[in-house]
Each structure stands twice: as C-alpha cells, then as structure tokens.
Amino acid sequence: MGRIQSIQSFSTLDGPGTRSVVFFQGCPAACLFCHNPESWAAQGGEEITPEELLLRLERFRPFLQEPPGLTLSGGEPLYQPAFALALAKLARAEGWHVALDTCGWGPTEPFHNLIQTVDLVMFSIKHPVYPDALSKLNPDSVLTNWQLLATLTTPVWLRYVLIKGWTDPPAALTALGRLARDLPTLEKIEIFPYNSLAESDWQKLQWDSPLFHEGNITVTEEEVRQAEKHVRESAGLPTSLFPSLNAP
Amino acid sequence: MDPWRNFRGKLWREKIDLSDFIRHNYQPFTAEPTFLCPPSPRTKRLWEKCQQLMAKERAAGGVLKIDVERVAEVTAWEPGYIDRDNEVIVGLQTDKPLKRLVNPWGGWRMVEAACKARNIDPDPIMKKIFTTYRRTQNEAIFRIYTPAMRQARHLGIITGLPDAYGRGRLIGDYRRVPLYGLDFLIAEKKKDLYALDNVDDASIHLREDIADQIEGLERLGAMAKTYGFDLSRPAANAHEAFQWLYFAYLGAVKEQNGAAMSLGHNSPFLDIYLQRDLEEGTLDEEGAQELIDQLVIKLRLVRHLRTPEYDELFAGDPLWVTEAIGGMGEDGRPLVTKTDYRWLHTLRNLGPSPEPNLTVLWSPRLPQPFRNYAVDLAIKTSALQFENDELMRPIFGDDYGISCCVSATSLGKDMQFFGARVNLAKALLLAINGGRDEKTGEQVLEVPTLSGEYLDWREVWENYEQVLTWLSVLYSRTMNCIHYMHDKYNYERIQMALIDSNPRRHMAFGVAGLSVVADSLSAIRYARVKALRDERGIATAFEVEGDFPCFGNDDDRVDGLAVKVIRYFYSSLAQQPIYRNAKPTMSILTITSNVVYGKKTGATPDGRKAGQPFAPGANPMHGREKSGVVAAMRSLAKLPYEICLDGISYTFSITPRTLGPTPADRAQNLMRLIDGYFGANGHHININVYSRETLIDAMEHPELYPNLTIRVSGYAVHFVKLSREQQLEVIERTIYERM
After folding, report:
1. What is the domain-level CATH number for residue A181?
2. At B738, is the pLDDT very low, low, confident or very high (cuts 50, 70, 90)?
3. Cβ contact, residue pair A11, B634, below 8 Å
4. How far is Cα A139 from Cα A124, in angstroms, rounded to an integer?
5. What is the pLDDT of residue B713?
6. Which domain holds residue A169?
7. Looking at the predicted structure, is the pLDDT value of residue B254 above 90?
8. Where do the DSSP E strands lie in B332-474?
9. Measured distance CA(B273)–CA(B275) in Å, rounded
10. Does any CB of chain A come closer than 8 Å to the CB of residue B421?
C-alpha cells in the first residue's frame, strides 16, 4: 500500500516516448522552488496498492507508444521505497518502460534497489554543491547516491533548474559539469528555466518561499543556452548529452 | 459518347445503387501521395478574387448583399458568375457571389429580423404573400404548440429548435444526378409514385412527397439549362460529373436554409470519373486538382441570411458542408482514393478553412500513408475532425456520409429529423427546485420539494428521473409538431428526390450539458452539497463540502453517472410515439451554443457559477480533467454509441510541445491517441493543435489571423468570426499543456 497524489495519463515531457506519470505523495526535500508543494505532506493523497495502481495505468496503455512509459515522480518516490519498488517491478514485468524521477534523497540501500529495477533514472540536481541552500536535502547523502549511479548500468538523465542568482553562477555550473563528467551512464543533461508558475501553487496553500522575495529570479532561453555551453565546455562534455543542441 | 463507357458492374445500371457502382469501379490508392499538384493558374486567379470578396464581406459586418426581391427557389435567379474566364465549375445561389437570398418558407419573422439587423426593408409584396396568403412552417408550428412547449422553449429547457428556418441535416445523394441524369431519376420516382395507390394517410402523404420531388428534379434541370448544361442525361466526363454534382447541391442550397447542409462522401465516386479521363488522356493531374479546388471554392461561398440570435448560437456563419473522407469498404478494401488526397490537399492549395467541414472516417486499417497524411494535416491546420469508421460502418454500411457535425447517415437511404437538444443541466435544477425554473421561478412541472438544506442523492435522483421522463414526452411531442409542419410547408423536394422514396427516418434528439450534470450528481453523491435558497425557495447557489470525482478523469464513479443519465433519458425517449415512425437517435453535441446554454442556466451543484459556459459537446468541464488527455478520452469513450447514434462530440486541444518534441513525434503520438480513443469505442474527435498564446494574440489582432481555423464542437470556424465571449470560452477550454 502506498500514497499517490495524482496520475497524469499522457506526457511527452517526463522521459522518452509517451508515458503516464504517477506523482507520489510525500517529499522531504521541501525545495524552495517546488512547483508541486501539495505533494510534500506524507499523509495526504490517495491510498492504493501497487496492483490496483497498475490496473489503472493499464487502461491508458493503448493510447501510448510501444513500449508504454511509466514515470515515478512526485513528491519523492524514494520516500515510499517499498511501494515504488513494488510498482516498478510489476510494471516492468508487464512491459512498461519505467523511469524514476528523483532528487536523490534517501538511504543508500533502497535507492540502490530501485535504480537497479528501473529502466531510466532522471536525477534532479537541485544544486551541485549546496543543495541545502535551496532545500532540506543533505549534500553528502545526495552525493553518495549520485556516485552510486556510476556503479550501476541504469542510464541516467541529469535535470537541473536554472534560477537566477541561485543555480546559475559559473562556479555552480562548473561543479555541475564535473558531476556529469564523472558518470559514465549519463545519457542526457536537461537544463530548464525556473518557472514562476510555482509561486501561484504556493499561494494556493498560503505558503511563502524566500525565493519569491529575491527580485527577478527567472532566466531567459538564451541564458539557459549559455549555461549549457558553460557546463559542456568547462567539463569537456560531448554535445550529444544536450538534447537542446540536437533539436531539429 | 456513352457516358457509362468502361464502367463495370450490372446491378447499378438497372436501379439506383451507388454502392454497387462504386464497388465495381473505384480504385483504392495505397501509395504515398507524391502526385499532388499546386492550384492551377485559373484557380489562383479565381480564389484571389473570392478572397477579396470575402474580405469585403467581413468589412461590411458579415453580410455583403441581400436580394430582397426574390423568394428562394431553384429557378429564381438568372445565371451568376464570379469570373467567367477562370471559373471551371459554375453556378451561384443567386446572381452574384456572396449575395444572400431571402428564404421565407421557414418563417417570415426570421426574414424580417435578419433584414432589420442589416438595416434593409424586405419587399412589401413578399411580406404580404407570406403573412396573408401563404402559411409558413414557423406560423404553422406556433399555431399548434401547446403552452408547455412554448414555456420549455422560452425558458431554454428545449432549445435551438428548427421551428423558424430549415431543419437541414438531410444529405441528398447528389452523386445520383451525374451517374444517372435527371430523366432516369424522374422515371424511377414516377414508378414509386404510381406503385403507391393506397388511400391511407401515410401513403397519400408519401405520394405528395414524391410528386414534389419530381417537380424539384424538373426545376433543377431547368436551372442547369440556364447555365447551358443538360442534366437530363448522365455526365459523360469528370468535368460534367463535378458540375452535375454541384448543381444538385446548389439546387438544395438555393431552396433550403437548414443549419446543416452537408455534402456526403463523394471522393470514391468522383475519383472514378477523374481516373477514366486520366486514362483516356483527356485530363491531367493539374486538371483533376483544379476541379476539386474549384468545387471547394464554390462550397466556401455558400451563404444564408441569419438573425443575430442565430449567429450567437451557431457562430461564424457555418453551413456544415460536411464531406467525409477515407473509410474502409465492407469488402475489406480501403475507400481511400487519390481524390481523397486531392480533397484534403485543398487545405494546402486554398488555405485552411472551416468549409467544407472535412471529416476523416478513421480506421486502423486505412493505408498507412493516408493515416500519416491526415494526421499531419490535422496538426498543421486544426481544420479536420475524425470519426470512428469501425464503429459506424457496422450500423450504416460503408456508403455513409456525416450530416451536420458528427451524425452518420446512409447516403440515399436515410433521412433525419433534426431535433436540436435539451438542456440537461436546467432539467437537473428543475429536479432540485420542485419543478420551478431557477431563473424566473415559473412552475414548469410538479415534483416533490426536497427536504433538507443538504441535497440527498436519492431524493435528487428520483426527482431527476421524473423530470427526464416528463421532458422526454414534451420533447418528442414538440419535435413531432415541428417535423409534421416542416414536411407540409417547407419540404426539401430536391434533397428528398435524391434519397429513396421511403427512407429510413431518424428522429435526431440531442442533449447538452452532460458533464455539468455528471459532476453535479457526483458532488451530491460523493461530497456534501448545501443548496442556498432565496426567498422563493429556489437554489441560487451551492456550497460543496469535500471532494468529488469529475467527469474526464477515467473515474467510473462519475463516468457511470453520465452513462446513467443518458441511458435513462434515451430509454424514455424511445418509448414515445414518433412522427412517421422515425427511429429515435441521440447526440451529445452543442456546437458553439454551449456558451448560450450556460448563460441561460443558473448555478449548478458542481460549483459552476450561474451563467458560466458549459463544456462543448460531451467534453469534460474546463479545467476539471486533472489526469490528462488519455484519462479524458477514456471517460468519453464510456458513453455508449449504440444509444447515441447521432454522435458524441469531443473537442480536443493540445499545444504542439505537449504532443511531442518533434513534428514526427507529434504525428505518431496523435495517431496513437486517435487509435487508442477509437479502439476504446470513442466516436468523434476534433483535433486542435495550437497554443493559448496564439489564440490570445488572434483575439487582440484579428487582422493578422484572417484564416486561423479552429475546431469547435463538430465543426470548424474562423476564430476571428467568433464573438468575444465565445473567443474567451475557447481560450478557457482545457488546452493540454504541461510546464
């Protein structure tokens, strides 16, 4: 039994192909720019067994490309490791391509088990050096999990949100490039501009984030391209890692 | 020259049988469409001229000219041309392009209101004739409407009724004119007429119908003669086949101003003629495309005179010149021909446009290149709709067209009595308010008053059943009045002449506001809904405590309620006696009228505020589809087509990026979505691929987007022709988009 916040039946943005996304309930990271703060509480959402959940997902399958994709997102799936692992195993056995969307939180062993089970890891690095400045994540724990990826064969996509004044200084981008360089299983680096829509999600809950009082923290598409260039050049990464550079 | 030279098959020669003719002679086309041609120089010049005329029409406020001196009739006008040097297909509704005709047969008040809105006086003699000497359909109907019918009509419970203008919805089998010529068709009708010599009402009624049809065909021939064509014999080549077919349709739109004047499914038929000319060396591909392009130009110029109220209901001057494309034959061969591609190609040669309303009959078994082409075009133009051929073919055979928005109809075999629709949400409010109208407080029927301030599911549902039963009786009786009088005073002699003499008749009932009702019932059942009543005891607002599932999320609890409502209502309708023994069908369809219906409906228990628009067609309410498009499609697909044979309209809008990262991905993903939806027994889907920003920009700068076409419920419309209110509603709709 586990808790989910919601299901998105069709997505082309959360991994390869067309996929359904399960948003897990509960997240300990508490990122200051979270666009889904309602998913934080451990006790909200809907209670469901992995078997029931998969049955619900199977109804979407004829509408998705083969193999159908399933992304475990959240919330933080690793906050409910047994549930996530059970769902991933069941889905894979039925032919789903399973991706894990994680911030790298959590103890090593469940992380290891889940990574070994899924087809793809989408690892969101909040900050390559100081994740604790933007979230409640423990930098050492995240780094340990990142390094663990190098010992496994599961392909990895690195995801990073560019926030003006917070995650865009050259030093941070250089550090991000180093993390990327050290991971042989890395397939892709996606850098997204900070999306100010998050603020209205916080307002709905009548919450506030110090980030929203920092003046303009949004970046332009051009600044995203510049950041990618910095990451790539500082670490000598191949262009093939950057989908934006290979766009048609 | 023998007009039937090189044609195969026997049956069709002796009696009218288009299916047999097509099956024996058409050539399926399964390869890539590398043969397509750009518009011919003549087409370009003609279209240029037409576009200037249409720009003038827009600048003049939507109506260029009205001919107030003549009464709509097939031979009333001398020949009219746009540009004789460049016009390959000829014939106009009046003597000038975009000059609108006056059609008083449906009713004089409509004529007067429409003229008044344009500051024109109708002809006093015509007025005298149609108000003193000749009874109109409208007058005849209102003389026999009961007080209850009038009340339901003016409160907007039964709405959009065709009681003041043509009912439309008929598709004459226009192909019969080129294949057989008028002499043959008239001779066949005479046989039918003389074979019926009973003296019972039904037989005499039918005999008068057929006599009218014969007269219609004779006058159609006379009209064509003024243009220098002899329709008495079959068409001898492709050019004649196109011209004959268009004249037959033109005859219909000269005499009838039905809301929907659809064309049928003509590609395989026309392709046979084009193919024969190509093989005989008398035509090349440019000439073939020219014929299609020029026919489509003519179809884009058909107009009718409407009142401002009508325009509010059916925005953008639509005519539903619906033409079906594709589909599979019952013998397993695809009905896709080169001409299906030529027809779709007009969207590229002439630019996207709402008319003709191109409808792809979709099947997973269609040739893959055709599937690719259609989906790609849908993404690029937002001008196509798709309907599930696998669902319709077993019921309508493989020779069917789409009438109006979404309604399948066997060509030449079926006719329908257009039934407009009832407002299911207002009906629910009657159940909650003891049978009183929530706006005016008028007592409409007697149902028990609800007990507590919180709505009790059982009490509400029992009342709702009573209301729906009452409504099905009133609704079917109202339709019977309308169609009796329409047959009598505004009979469609030309269209009916091109349908079998004793056709299968459908009474096409309809419902609006289904998702509002489903969500409201869900709120009452799964959350707690408090009715806030005014001093009259009428609930003017509702407070919902707790969560409840909404239609459009693949949640059986609420989707089942939607099904329960339409099953109950349809089974009540099916028990009512229906005019001319028509078979009842039902649609879940609103066109653009979802805005007007919403305006006329008070607050509902789902949290919708008074006056807010409904969702279009069978769509989930705006913004309540929290689980994405596939879940929404799954909910829609649960609505049973077998009791909604008139069609279940779903309008789908998505941003390009949400559909996929590259154009190739988008086409593949969309194809999979359509296959998935239809595989789950979904019936119809409008495809819109655009961003909200584009629409907002078009609203602010309409001059930059004269051709921006979008699909609304069952038809397409130029976005800039919508009222601001309707534009805002379209923008408010769920456009699937994720950040």
Report:
1. 3.20.20.70
2. low
3. no
4. 13
5. 67
6. 2-246
7. yes
8. 357-362, 385-388, 400-403, 407-410, 414-418, 421-423
9. 5
10. no
Last residue of a domain, one of B580, B611, B644: B644
Cα separations (Å) of B495 from B248, B253, B383, B492, B592? 8, 9, 27, 6, 26
Query: B668 — contact with chain A (CB < 8 Å)?
Result: yes
d(CA B702, CA B734): 22
- Look at residue B711 in the predicted model and tell me its pLDDT: 80
Cross-chain residue pair B630–A10, CB shorter than 8 Å: yes
| Cross-chain CB nearest to B658 (options A12, A35, A56) | A12
> What is residue B700's predicted lDDT score, i.e. its pLDDT?
85
Largest CA distance in chain B: 82
The domain containing residue B548 runs over which residues?
Answer: 418-644
Strand arrangement, sheet containing A120-124: A46-48, A2-11, A19-24, A69-73, A97-102, A120-124, A156-162, A186-193
Contacts of A20 in chain B (CB under 8 A): 628, 630
Tens of pLDDT, residues A206-245: 888 888 887 888 899 999 999 999 999 999 999 999 987 7
The residues pairing with B357 across neighbouring beta strands, listed in sequence order, are B322
Q: How many domains does chain A have?
A: 1
Query: What digits encode the pLDDT tens for the residues B1-25?
Result: 899 999 999 999 999 999 999 999 9
Determine whether the interchain pair B659/A12 forms a contact, defined as Cβ–Cβ distance below 8 Å.
yes
Omega within 30 of 0 (cis) for the link into B356: yes
CB A60 within 8 A of CB A50: no
Residue B679 within a domain: no
Is position B20 within any domain?
Answer: yes
Measured between CB atoms, does B379 come within 8 Å of chain A? no
Quote the CA–CA distance of B713 and B587 in Å, as a whole number.
12
Cβ-contact B734, B625 below 8 angstroms: yes
Please tell me whether the interface predicted TM-score (ipTM) of this complex is above 0.85: yes
* Statement to judge: residues B453 and B594 lie in one domain: yes
Question: pLDDT (tens digit, 9 = 90+) per residue, B143-194?
Answer: 999 999 999 999 999 998 999 999 999 999 999 999 999 999 999 999 999 9
CA–CA–CA angle B156, B161, B162 (5° rounding) = 160
Task: Tell me: do B407 and B424 sit in the same domain.
Answer: no
Last residue of a domain, one of B381, B412, B443: B412
pLDDT in tens, B640-683: 999 999 999 999 888 888 899 899 999 999 999 999 999 999 99
B493's CB contacts (< 8 A; 6+ apart) are B212, B213, B215, B216, B255
- Token pair for B95: 């003597």
